């Protein structure tokens, strides 16, 4: 019985993960708490050019995703978008302009921007862009410049092993790039001229394409970031995150 008690005690201790020593902690009852959080979160994100699996954080440089599916829109982007073996570069260089934590409402709202996001993937598109039917499959490089993000997280608080933890109940994202550039190989097989023309159509009409399936793109980015943040909250108790 004594051995069992010791094992249980060790389990409780090991279940509580400490924040990395390189992450800044902020004192919640200070007047500059949100300003402190803004700097602390930006600093932590910049460190994620490598994984920190002990606290549930994967590398953001690149952020690797096995597949992404985007359904057709009803306007310019009436084609299915399937991406596989996706690598997304740029999130670790995000600049934060606002970070608000409301403990009473259990909400987090923050705004950040990324000057350049680069997406490398294998793509499979089928449908029509504008009025042009096409069916393409190959390598894709898509860059998004000066992307602004506004995230909102609604949290639940719960007890585990004598400690309080947060988990994400709901999250929303509003995103907006200033420019998108597509480089899609093999859009028309060996017909390079038609492929170049269709790439030009994508790039000349990037805003209409984004607007048509904006909510789908936002949901993809939202889910990727939310999953990473939720893994961190699942491992690190509130007492370790704030003083």
Automatic annotation (TrEMBL):
One GO term describing the cellular component: extracellular space
Q: Does the keyword Disulfide bond apply?
A: no
State the organism named in the record: Zophobas morio
The record's annotation in InterPro entries points to:
Haemolymph_juvenile_hormone-bd, To_sf
- The family this protein is said to belong to: Belongs to the TO family.
A single GO BP term for this record reads: circadian rhythm
Q: Is Protease set as a keyword in this record?
A: no
- Look up the domain of life of the source: Eukaryota
Could you list this entry's UniProt keywords, alphabetically sorted. Biological rhythms, Signal
Q: Name one Pfam family in it.
A: JHBP
Name of this protein: Uncharacterized protein
Signal peptide (from-to)? 1-16
């Amino acid at each position: 019985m004594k051995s069992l008690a010791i094992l249980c005690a060790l389990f409780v201790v090991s279940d509580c993960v400490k924040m990395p020593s390189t992450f800044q902690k902020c004192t919640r009852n200070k007047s500059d708490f949100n300003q402190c959080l803004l700097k602390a979160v930006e600093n932590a994100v910049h460190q994620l050019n490598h994984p920190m699996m002990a606290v549930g954080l994967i590398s953001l440089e690149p952020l690797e995703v096995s597949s992404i599916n985007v359904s057709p829109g009803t306007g310019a982007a009436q084609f299915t978008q399937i991406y596989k073996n996706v690598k997304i570069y740029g999130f670790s260089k995000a600049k934060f302009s606002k970070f608000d934590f409301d403990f009473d409402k259990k909400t987090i709202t923050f705004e950040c921007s990324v000057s350049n996001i680069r997406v490398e993937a294998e793509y499979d598109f089928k449908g029509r862009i504008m009025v042009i039917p096409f069916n393409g499959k190959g390598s894709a490089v898509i860059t998004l410049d000066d992307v602004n993000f506004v995230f909102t997280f609604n949290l639940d608080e719960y007890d585990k092993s004598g400690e309080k933890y947060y988990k994400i109940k709901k999250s929303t994202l509003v995103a907006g790039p200033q420019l998108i550039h597509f480089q899609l190989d093999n859009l028309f097989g060996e017909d390079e001229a038609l492929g170049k023309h269709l790439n030009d159509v994508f790039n000349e009409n990037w805003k209409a394409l984004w607007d048509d399936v904006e909510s789908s793109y936002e949901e993809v980015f939202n889910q990727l970031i939310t999953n990473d943040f939720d893994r961190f909250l699942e491992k690190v108790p509130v007492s370790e995150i704030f003083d």
